[in-house]
From TrEMBL:
<keyword id="KW-0560">Oxidoreductase</keyword>
<protein>
    <recommendedName>
        <fullName>NAD-dependent epimerase/dehydratase domain-containing protein</fullName>
    </recommendedName>
</protein>
<dbReference type="GO" id="GO:0016616">
    <property type="term" value="F:oxidoreductase activity, acting on the CH-OH group of donors, NAD or NADP as acceptor"/>
</dbReference>
<dbReference type="InterPro" id="IPR036291">
    <property type="entry name" value="NAD(P)-bd_dom_sf"/>
</dbReference>
<feature type="signal peptide">
    <location>
        <begin position="1"/>
        <end position="19"/>
    </location>
</feature>
<dbReference type="InterPro" id="IPR050425">
    <property type="entry name" value="NAD(P)_dehydrat-like"/>
</dbReference>
<dbReference type="Pfam" id="PF01370">
    <property type="entry name" value="Epimerase"/>
</dbReference>
<dbReference type="InterPro" id="IPR001509">
    <property type="entry name" value="Epimerase_deHydtase"/>
</dbReference>
<feature type="domain" description="NAD-dependent epimerase/dehydratase">
    <location>
        <begin position="53"/>
        <end position="241"/>
    </location>
</feature>
<keyword id="KW-0732">Signal</keyword>
Length: 269
């Protein structure tokens, strides 16, 4: 999965210097990597599929693109958001071509297992993207990141196993294999390279801790329970924005342009 991860990172990072058409192409490439990793045996029917695909975190930057491209390819989609009453999460999804016929929105809480079951029931594949992310300083790491990241991921996998989902594509992060200051500079990164958790905890860098523990928990679940899982590890996610608000990566760049370095200190290192 690391090769795909590096390619995805290069694609989204180069998007900021290309023209509009190239931006669209690069974002589509990232999502195509996700689709290629799903590879479930779903009978495609361009007029609508009998089996759906679930996308958690569908209102986010990558999630919105995944939903859009799934709809373009004729899939039925179960898309999860945090609040169905929040138009900033739902309006752009409902406006997508094919949404009226093949998109169902679900309000989901990563710590509410029943809400996860409702979204995944009837799906042949799952793209798990939901995970809190912020450029603000983290006040309560356990509540803000650890619980939704680790417990939330395991809840999604448990529901996927229950409903016999054929494959789960886990969107992890480059934060799962860095920072790792003890890793030899001349040694290529591979699946054995994980973020140095003690270093991150000591320096109050909590997002990499949550992403690392969540991905490790997912691989343990896969080995112990037999669920087919693959992971992709994107980095800074830039490109054409479908939701009305900036994602964390773009918000960080806006702050940098403004000369504002408030928030999570590790973002500026």
């Amino acid at each position: 999965f690391l090769c795909l991860s590096v390619l995805a990172v290069l694609c989204v990072n180069s998007a900021c210097v290309e023209g509009g058409d190239s931006l669209l192409l690069l974002v589509r490439l990232l999502c195509s990597l996700l689709f290629a990793m799903l590879r479930v045996e779903i009978t495609e029917n361009r007029m609508g599929l009998t089996e759906a695909v679930c996308v958690t975190g569908a209102s986010g930057f990558i999630g919105s693109w995944v939903v859009r491209l799934l709809l373009e390819r004729g899939y039925a989609v179960h898309a999860t958001v945090q609040n169905l009453e929040n138009w900033k999460e739902t309006k752009h999804l409902e406006a997508m071509e094919g949404a009226k016929e093949r998109l169902k929105l679900f309000q989901m809480d990563l710590l509410d297992y029943e809400s996860i079951e409702a979204a995944i029931n009837g799906c042949a594949g799952v793209f798990h993207l939901a995970m809190p992310n912020t450029i603000e300083a983290v006040q309560d790491p356990q509540k803000q990141l650890m619980d939704p990241g680790i417990k939330g991921t395991l809840n999604v996998l448990e529901a996927a196993l229950k409903f016999q989902v054929k494959r789960v594509v886990l969107t992890s992060s480059v934060s799962a294999f860095g920072p790792n200051p003890k890793w030899p500079a001349e040694t290529p990164l591979d699946e054995s390279s994980w973020t140095d958790l003690e270093y991150c905890k000591k320096n109050g860098i909590w997002y990499p801790v949550a992403k690392t523990l969540a991905e490790k928990a997912a691989w343990d679940f896969s080995k112990e329970r037999g669920l087919d899982i693959v992971a992709i590890n994107p980095g800074t996610a830039l490109g054409i924005i479908l939701p009305p608000d900036f994602n964390a990566s773009l918000a960080m760049i806006v702050r940098l342009v403004d000369g504002n370095k408030e928030g999570e200190e590790s973002m500026w290192q």
